[in-house]
Amino acid sequence: MVVSPLENIVEDLKALPPDRLELAANYVRRLKPTSPAERDAALARTFGCLSQEEADELERTIEEGCEQINEHAW
After folding, report:
1. pTM of the entire structure?
2. Taking the C-alpha atoms of 54, 55, 58 and 63 in order, what is their torsion angle to the nearest 10 degrees?
3. Measured distance between the N- and C-terminal CA atoms of the chain, rounded to whole angstroms
């Protein structure tokens, strides 16, 4: 008898404790493709969540730490 990958996964999930099952569910949800509407909704939920001061600090941090090229690191 051939068991499908889905059946194997379901059996593995049944054996997980509740906290691990929740982690597995979160991972599976992240694997699921999202529609443009879902992405737009997620962006709308987070838009404006930073104060102007927080946004300025984040921008400064990115400019200081992320916009540097270390030629010897390549």
Report:
1. 0.44
2. -140
3. 51
